[in-house]
């Protein structure tokens, strides 16, 4: 086969390969999503374990906790928080469903006020409004998602345990798999970049999302908003989704406050405080801690959010950014795919460790 024929087949092969990968990602999502969540938890455990190892238990002798102990303590802590969080989410959803009748009068008042500015029939009851707009089709997927998370939790925990056990023999497997010394060194450099990017992203996002949720909880609790813990937990989760996550997370408790209090004054005060927290943490603290380590174009982040969200739903939106960061690093290492990495990056500068070559080429563009 001539070179021209090879080049002419390259584009169709790329299209076919991409289509096959997308079909596989969608078809196997019930297995892949728990695995990706488990990898995220594993990175979080690793980050906490590394932080624990820096703690000196004996300053005079400069002694630190052993690796195995920090792994056990961090695993118990992270998995315990995860299980506790899912339990809170499920319990509060059940409580909210059972309390719908309690807010029916307030909902009716809000509906009457909305009928003056929106195309809603005047005098329509709340139940007629629900039946007309079929809100069950909107709420249903939310409850399904919560139920699926609870059911998948055991599978995720099993994956996490095996990832922790596999970590001890991974280095030996890589040594046996990649015999060439220079290729092995370059591969370790690429793997190190991937680990650093994901570890940084997960650690920073967990901290900033927790801070946003906690500060929002204090504000909501001060105003006496019902289900403040639930709203704070939802804010924590949705803040992992770029852009639209923070908007959705802010909108839900604000709309509920309008129903509970029936006061636009309280609504506006909550709006100012909660949105202020989002802006302070999301626009200042998050970029300051994250820096430019991920090197992803904002347009690519938006596109990946839509693409992974359409394939994997809520989980896809949460993991869209670290997945794209990993793809940029991997694509940069091969000459045939380097142009993709350049297009996806924020500034066009990419770090290259050519796999299979004896020397690093430094930066490529």
Textual characterization of the structure:
- Helix 3 (67-98) runs antiparallel to helix 6.
- The strands form two sheets. A two-stranded antiparallel ribbon has the order 1-2.
- The protein has helices at 3-27, 29-53, 67-98, 104-114, 126-133, 136-177, 181-223, 228-238, 244-261, 264-290, 298-331, 338-344; strands at 56-58, 63-64, 350-352, 362-364.
- It is mainly α and 365 residues long.
Strand content: under 5%
Helix content: over 70%
Strand count, sense and barrel status of the largest sheet are: 2 strands, antiparallel
Element string (H = helix, E = strand)? HHEEHHHHHHHHHHEE
In terms of per-residue confidence, which ranges show pLDDT below 50 for 5 or more consecutive residues?
133-140, 358-365
Radius of gyration, in Å, reads 24 Å
Topology, number of strands:
4
Average of per-residue pLDDT values: 76
Distance between the termini: 30 Å
Shape: globular
What is the number of helical segments per DSSP (H or I, 4+ residues)? 12
- Backbone structural class: mainly alpha
Spatially, the strands of the biggest sheet line up as: 1-2
